[in-house]
Design a protein that fits this description.
Elements lengths: L1 E7 H10 L7 H22 L3 E5 L7 H5 L12 H16 L12 H14 L3 E6 L14 E4 L4 E3 L1 H8 L6 H8 L14 H11 L2 H8 L5 H8 L1 H11 L11 H4 L5
Helix pairs in contact: 1-2, 2-4, 7-8, 7-11, 8-9
Length: 258
């Protein structure tokens, strides 16, 4: 059986870059990408994959911006020196034997979701996603495992339930309810993690919650009814797009160990 390692590329690159307190500079970018390359190598050494998917955001507007103009409006842009250094970094990854996938109009999350689900559907073996991004943890429900490279820990079904109070299959509904400030996804006013998790444990799904909201006489019921449209828009925004035309074959992602 095979083993797919999907790497959320910018999740690693940006965290390494931002961990350094120095001001933005070409030297800072060079050092950060050198460390990021070591992280990629360590991931491959530690997980011994048969296939590797290094996925990176292409940049610019995506299908989510078309749905909601305010998407990610509060997120700080990538430092220019780091963005300018990425093409050379991709070349270094290619020289290392990796096939970088970076597609316009979609995010790396969508590419990873598409490829991981296809891999699992074809029963090709284990799928590991190297990321700290909460959006990708919904893939745990389909049989993937998430690896936090920075904490060296596995995130499985039990970890997700302990962290968020719901199983991974309910994570998109949870994020839709509570919103996600990182991506400027509004969610429902004054609904935080605990309230969102309690609603999902009680009702099970977003649709069931909204059906029940019709008889709730308290402020929460009123808010849910009032913000129904934004809630379902938020649900679309947090949902992974899993039908991306990735344009690579399994052979292109195959990893030949030295």
């Amino acid at each position: 059986m095979g083993r797919l390692l999907a790497i959320d590329g910018l999740n690693i690159v940006r965290r390494v870059y931002e961990a350094s307190p120095e001001p933005d500079s070409d030297l800072k970018a060079e050092i950060a990408l050198r460390h990021a390359l070591s992280s990629f190598r360590n991931l491959i050494t530690d997980h011994q994959p048969t296939h590797v998917l290094p996925a990176f955001d292409f940049g610019g507007a995506t299908w989510r911006h078309q749905l909601y103009a305010g998407y990610r409006e509060g997120r700080a842009p990538m430092p220019g020196v780091l963005r300018e250094a990425l093409p050379e970094f991709y070349q270094r990854l290619a020289g290392f034997g990796l096939r970088v996938v970076s597609l316009p109009d979609v995010e790396a999350d969508d590419v990873i979701g598409t490829v991981v689900l296809r891999w699992l559907a074809e029963d090709r073996g284990a799928a590991v996603v190297a990321t700290t991004d909460k959006d990708l943890h919904c893939l745990v429900a389909q049989g993937a495992l998430v690896w936090d490279h920075f904490k060296s820990e596995w995130h499985d079904h039990a970890w997700c339930e302990k962290k968020w109070g719901v199983p991974p299959e309910q994570l998109p509904d949870l994020l839709a309810l509570m919103g996600d400030a990182t991506d400027s996804i509004p969610g429902v006013s004054k609904v935080g993690l605990k309230t969102a998790a309690k609603l999902l444990r009680t009702y099970g799904t977003l649709d069931a919650i909204m059906a029940g909201a019709g008889i709730l006489k308290d402020t929460l019921g009123e808010t849910l009814r009032k913000e129904r449209e934004m809630l379902y828009l938020s649900r679309q925004l947090v949902q992974l797009k899993t039908d991306v035309r990735v344009g690579v074959s399994w052979n292109m992602l195959a990893w030949e160990s030295a």
